[in-house]
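ESCALATION

Customer reports they have been waiting on this structure for their group meeting. Please prioritize. Original submission:
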Amino acid sequence: GLAATMAGGLTLLGWQFDLPALRSILPSWVAMNPATAVCFILAGLALGLMTRDAPGPTIHNGVALCAVLVAFIGAAKLAGLITGHDLGLDQMLFREKLLPGGGLPPNRMAPNTAGGFLFVGLALLALRLETVGKKWWSQALAIIPLLFSLLALIGYAYGAETFYRVTAYIPMAVNTALAFFVLSLGTLFAHPDRGLAALV
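Update from on-call: job pushed to the front of the queue and completed.
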């Protein structure tokens, strides 16, 4: 949770102060979108708060709100890509800096990133609801963004663009894939006494 929050926070600082090294690992690579950074901050906070010892009802409600926001942003972006009526949530922050430049396309949230946030948000919401029972829906949902991030990282490592890019859309950034990997693992092992986590 802390790692995801820091990844998002550093990226926002990178956009604010025009520091390419904070927006993307290398200046020539795709930068993490500001809305993506906000989602990582929300998801990281939700995971961090959820795994505290005996969180109270206020924290539970805060976790649920963060999870719903993350899932909503991911779902809204995917719906916009499918219907062609994008709400532009990934263009609300630093709009003038997201325009094309240096041979790169306009910076938008990638489809696999949006899908990852939809499942991360649902996984965190399931994690919030599972505190009473022994279900492990959160783990099943967290595996999907974990696979997205693994595919992207393998694609970057071996130069296989189809692993981290969905058709002609902007690809998932490397730092986005790394943050998803850590966040998904954290969600997967938040309840180590049940499901796949217990098996591992």
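Sent to customer with the following note: The helical segments are 2-16, 20-23, 34-50, 57-83, 111-129, 137-158, 174-188, 195-199.
Escalation resolved.
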